[in-house]
């Protein structure tokens, strides 16, 4: 646990603004440079405060941009299989337990300065990975379908605009006329138009799309400057439901992980066996996320029910953890907790998408991440204070279990929030 763990969530609102202004791909590339640059600059560190900035703040800020960008793009790429795809993307986080032995080998071979330089070079691989986050401009129909439907619109509604795709419609006059004409036609019953503008090196491309079946919905969508802060979130009860749960679950998550090895040592368990517990937890969590994501996509019930169930099981497991006083019992606790924790971690983004409703995913995720960052920063601190006060690690597991149980409470209010939302739409 370091500063970068909390700073990867705390700058969530800033990451939202950067993604809105530059796009997810550019924001992700910027995050990759921040992470790599932080490790490279750390090789010249001369003090702990220097490392707090270069190994904590910079990589953490870069991780926030990477996480925000990847999460938002995943919601755009995947609809039907969002939970499974998100679980696969997150599953690598459970294997981070393998990084510690790898870093130790690098330090033994190249000293700590050489190890940091190599880590920085490895992080540069995030740049080409970020370039793969290509935006989606048109969904549902290909260009030929759009052209055909646009031609039919031009025939049935004269003056609707230029051709369906106009890379150079006199660049100003005709393109503007197309937009104005489309907006006028959108007001006519029976026809719904969507006008989108794509900017590229050749100029502006204006697309005119008709959809007679959806005229009751929003008719016109035109590129405009994004909102830097979505105030509508504060009026959304689902935002408070999810934020309450995410805050408490992240407050509880790092406590068992942080004190698992220390508790094993106090019970007289060998250090190598104690560290094995962490490795097993990471591998189990990885497998659990993938399975939980696949199960959630089967739509046997709403995803927030899975999320709520996993949180309750995590809480119950941690409340029973002090009963594990031998290595086999600690291993049993570790496997069960990692299984349930992997399940709820796989549900975070799909549940957020389901509950966000009409709110923008970027703003919803960014603001929620800010509160989660505060929880991640506070959790280990509270766990350390509990040990200093009680001189036992059982307090951390009890506190973690209570937080998990409380984090599930807010999801019991989802039906009430849905009724309230439906009453407003009537």
TrEMBL record:
SUPFAM superfamilies noted in UniProt: MFS general substrate transporter
GO molecular function, one term: monocarboxylic acid transmembrane transporter activity
Name used for this protein in its record: Solute carrier family 16 member 4
Keywords noted in UniProt: Membrane, Transmembrane, Transmembrane helix
Domain Major facilitator superfamily (MFS) profile: 238-426
Keyword DNA damage: no
Transmembrane annotation, as ranges: 48-70, 82-103, 109-127, 237-256, 276-297, 309-327, 333-352, 364-385, 397-417
Domain of life: Eukaryota
Gene Ontology CC terms, in alphabetical order: membrane
Membrane topology, as annotated: Multi-pass membrane protein
Gene name per UniProt: SLC16A4
InterPro entries assigned to the protein according to its UniProt record, in alphabetical order: MFS (IPR011701), MFS_dom (IPR020846), MFS_trans_sf (IPR036259), Proton-linked_MCT (IPR050327)
Principal subcellular localization: membrane
Coiled-coil stretches noted in the UniProt entry, renumbered to this chain: none
Subcellular location: Membrane
Keyword Transmembrane: yes
């Amino acid at each position: 646990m370091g500063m970068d763990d909390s700073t990867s969530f705390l700058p969530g609102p800033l990451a939202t603004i950067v993604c809105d202004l530059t796009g997810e791909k550019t924001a992700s590339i910027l995050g990759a440079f921040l992470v790599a640059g932080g490790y490279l600059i750390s090789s010249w560190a001369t003090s702990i405060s220097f490392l707090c900035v270069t190994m904590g703040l910079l990589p953490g800020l870069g991780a926030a941009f990477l996480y925000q960008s990847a999460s938002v793009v995943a919601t755009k790429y995947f609809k039907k299989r969002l939970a499974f795809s998100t679980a696969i993307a997150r599953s690598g986080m459970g294997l981070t337990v393998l990084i510690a032995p790898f870093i130790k080998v690098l330090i033994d071979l190249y000293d700590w300065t050489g190890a940091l330089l190599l880590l920085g070079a490895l992080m540069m691989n995030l740049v080409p990975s970020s370039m793969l986050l290509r935006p989606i401009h048109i969904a549902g129909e290909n260009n030929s379908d759009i052209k055909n439907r646009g031609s039919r619109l031009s025939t049935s509604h004269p003056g609707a605009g230029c051709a369906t795709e106009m890379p150079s419609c006199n660049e100003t006059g005709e393109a503007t006329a197309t937009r104005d004409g489309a907006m006028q036609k959108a007001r006519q019953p029976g026809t719904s138009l969507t006008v989108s503008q794509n900017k590229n090196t050749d100029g502006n491309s204006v697309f005119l799309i008709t959809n007679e079946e959806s005229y009751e919905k929003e008719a016109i969508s035109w590129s405009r400057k994004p909102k830097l802060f979505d105030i509508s979130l504060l009026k959304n009860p689902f935002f408070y439901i999810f934020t309450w749960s995410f805050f408490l679950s992240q407050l509880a998550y790092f406590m068992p992980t942080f004190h698992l090895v220390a508790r094993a040592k106090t019970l007289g368990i060998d250090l190598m066996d104690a560290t094995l517990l962490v490795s097993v937890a990471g591998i189990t969590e990885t497998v659990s996320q993938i399975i939980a994501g696949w199960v959630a996509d089967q739509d046997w019930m709403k995803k927030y029910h899975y999320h709520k169930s996993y949180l309750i099981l995590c809480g119950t497991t941690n409340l029973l953890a002090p009963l594990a006083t031998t290595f086999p019992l600690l291993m049993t606790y570790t496997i069960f907790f990692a299984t349930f924790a992997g399940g709820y971690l796989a549900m975070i983004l799909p549940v957020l998408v389901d509950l966000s409703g009409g709110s923008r995913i970027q703003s919803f995720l960014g603001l929620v991440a800010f509160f989660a960052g505060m929880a991640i920063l506070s959790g280990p601190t509270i766990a350390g204070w509990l040990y200093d006060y009680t001189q036992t690690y059982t307090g951390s597991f009890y506190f973690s279990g209570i937080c998990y149980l409380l984090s599930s409470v807010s999801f019991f209010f989802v039906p009430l929030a849905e009724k309230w939302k439906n009453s407003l739409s009537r």
